[in-house]
Specification:
The complex is a heterodimer of chains A (429) and B (103).
Chain A (H helix, E strand, L loop, with lengths): L5 H12 L6 H11 L3 E6 L3 H13 L4 E6 L5 E2 L4 H5 L9 E2 L2 H7 L2 E3 L3 E5 L4 E4 L4 E3 L2 E4 L3 E3 L11 H4 L8 H12 L5 E6 L9 H16 L4 E6 L8 H11 L4 E4 L4 E5 L4 E4 L4 E3 L2 E4 L3 E3 L1 H6 L11 E2 L4 E2 L5 E3 L14 H19 L8 E9 L5 E11 L4 E4 L5 E2 L5 H19 L1
Parallel strand pairs in A: 1-2, 1-9, 2-5, 9-21, 11-12, 11-17, 12-13
Antiparallel strand pairs in A: 3-4, 6-7, 7-8, 10-18, 14-15, 15-16, 19-20, 22-23, 23-24, 23-25
Chain B lengths: L6 H13 L10 H12 L17 H12 L8 H4 L5 H12 L4
The chains are: A alpha/beta (429), B mainly alpha (103).
């Protein structure tokens, strides 16, 4: 194992700290000029891509030039957005900027959409910012929603029937629909078959909405229509809270696969022909790697997800492209989560630093944690540690590691909020 | 909020790494292993939030805490489960890394 020289780090840290912020970019460019080892373009600035950009700079000692291409000017966090929907958190708190990556790490941040890739010439094309050459490309595409899999969920129906499964304007719109809901109204959420982004997310959402309705509109109901046969994450903890705190408000129906919606009447129909009408209808359609992954050509599992080499996260479809985050055909028991994407970003960054330095990347260990609030104060978690298995060529959960909370607690409510603040900083600052 | 973190902290993080000409091996490194902890304890173990910072904590103390978590001898909400995922050798490396970070 080889390490940074700690004495050198500390000495230089002390000296540089006195220079002030304005000097940092020139410092980093100087370093890059003295010995640049390569150029990396990161496409997608969510938890995966932003982390990868930062850690490419950190782990390469500034010797890799990093350009992050992201359509949106702001990073909007899906984790904790359920708290915004339930009126427990200010929307502004989940919106963050990219200036930390620019100022602290010397990442070049470009706001444009990627529209094509020349894998042979190693160039990526954008709509408004021209082309970028790369030695390695990291793609952190996230998911897109398969609206076509739910009949009638067209762009008109999408105006009234929200998903709010990507944080942003939909988060605020769903918050407003709930604020406008009459006491005695019905909120219904449909959950697609796994795998989908954030396994515990739907169950956290219905718990927090039940909490909101119990507190403010106690005659109202929450209906959970789950295409899966059971709760997909922290099952005993969620169902325990529902039985104890939300009895008479929240009803859970398994094996309820939504296949059609009627936007005008806010009705959803199941595969078996059951119909449910709700005042607020919240549909989570099936999901797949986002369109950009299809454009770049890395979607090679079921037409939905991307397969990678689990040592380097290199695509098995397109050379010199590494794929991270929710778009992956996940390793066993590995969730599609922001925490996992942050870890993928570090793993891919480290592998690329080694590849560009002429070293063979070593397999790694990464961990996941998903916190979920169950009311205004208490939270629960699930966690796991994943280690590369040379025989199976994938990351497997370390036997005996990980688990779930003993019970919902206020202590974990505090830790869950600290986790959000800390991972935002680890990803962006 | 991280936005209120002094910018100087970002500088301390960034500057030392920026100055190295030859990056050390990155995959399989203790830095990468320790980065499993950064999303809760802050990058390089520096944080002002409710999960405690680890930067600059003495190595023997960190090892004691982590081994107690691993063996289930220390009350915890989550660390007893996470610590079981790492070998004693890895814990030694991680503890060494955090002990050498500036607070």
């Amino acid at each position: 194992m080889s390490l940074f020289d700690p004495t050198r780090r500390q000495l230089l840290g002390g000296a540089a700290a006195g220079l002030g912020l304005g000097l940092l970019p020139s410092l980093s460019f100087a370093a890059a000029k003295s010995k640049p080892i390569g150029r990396v373009v990161v496409v997608g600035g969510g938890f995966g891509g932003a982390t990868a950009a930062k850690y490419l700079r950190k782990l390469s000692g500034g010797t890799i030039e990093v350009t992050l291409i992201e359509r949106r000017k702001e990073f909007i966090s899906c984790p904790t957005s359920n708290e915004v929907i339930a009126g427990l958190r200010d929307y502004k708190s989940i919106v963050h900027g990219y200036e930390g990556l620019r100022k602290n790490w010397g990442v070049k941040v470009v706001h444009a959409a990627v529209i094509g890739l020349d894998a042979e010439k190693r160039r990526v094309r954008t709509d408004t910012a021209g082309e970028f050459a790369y030695d390695k490309l990291i793609l952190s595409p996230g998911i897109d929603l398969d609206f076509e899999k739910v009949a009638g969920y067209d762009s008109k129906a999408q105006d009234t029937i929200l998903h709010a499964w990507k944080a942003g304007s939909q988060t605020l719109a769903l918050r407003k629909q709930l604020a406008d809901l009459r006491d005695g109204g019905v909120y219904a959420l449909t959950i697609p078959k796994a795998p989908y982004r954030c396994p515990p997310g739907p169950y956290e959402r219905v718990s927090l909405i039940a909490h909101y309705l119990k507190t403010h509109k106690p005659k109202s109901k929450v209906l959970v229509l789950d295409a899966n046969e059971k709760v997909q994450s922290k099952e005993k903890l969620f169902t325990g809270v529902w039985a104890k705190d939300y009895a008479g408000i929240l009803e859970y129906r398994p094996n309820w696969n939504a296949v059609a919606v009627d936007g005008a009447n806010k009705t959803v129909t199941s595969e078996l022909g059951d119909k449910v009408t709700a005042d607020v209808l919240n549909i989570l359609p099936p999901q797949r790697a986002a369109d950009i992954a299809h454009i770049i050509g890395v979607v090679n599992v079921n037409g939905r997800w991307s397969d990678v080499d689990w040592t380097t996260l290199a695509s098995t479809a397109v050379p010199n492209v590494h794929v991270i985050g929710d778009a992956l055909q996940a390793a066993p028991l590995m969730p599609k989560s922001g925490h996992m994407a942050n870890q993928h970003g570090k793993l891919a960054a480290a592998a690329i630093v080694d590849l560009l330095s002429g070293r063979i990347p070593q397999p790694g260990v990464i961990a996941n944690t998903c916190y979920s609030h169950v009311d205004g104060a208490r939270a629960i978690h699930v966690d796991s540690v994943h280690r590369y298995d040379a025989e199976k060529k994938t990351l497997l959960v370390v036997p005996g590691s990980g688990g779930v909370s003993k019970e919902p607690s206020e202590a974990e409510g505090i830790y869950a909020r600290a986790w959000a603040d800390t991972i935002w900083a680890d990803t962006l600052v | 909020m991280y936005k209120s973190l002094p910018i100087a902290i970002g500088l301390l993080l960034a500057a030392p790494a920026m100055a190295a000409d030859h990056p050390a091996a990155a995959s399989g490194s203790t830095t990468l292993l320790a980065s499993n902890c950064f999303n809760c304890h802050g990058t390089d173990g520096r944080t002002t939030h409710a999960i405690p910072p680890l930067a600059g904590v003495a190595k023997p103390h960190l090892i004691t805490l982590l081994k107690e978590y691993k063996e289930g001898k220390r009350e915890a909400t989550i660390m007893h489960q996470l610590a079981k995922g790492y070998t004693d050798e890895e814990i030694d490396g991680i503890a060494d890394y955090f002990s050498k970070q500036k607070r």
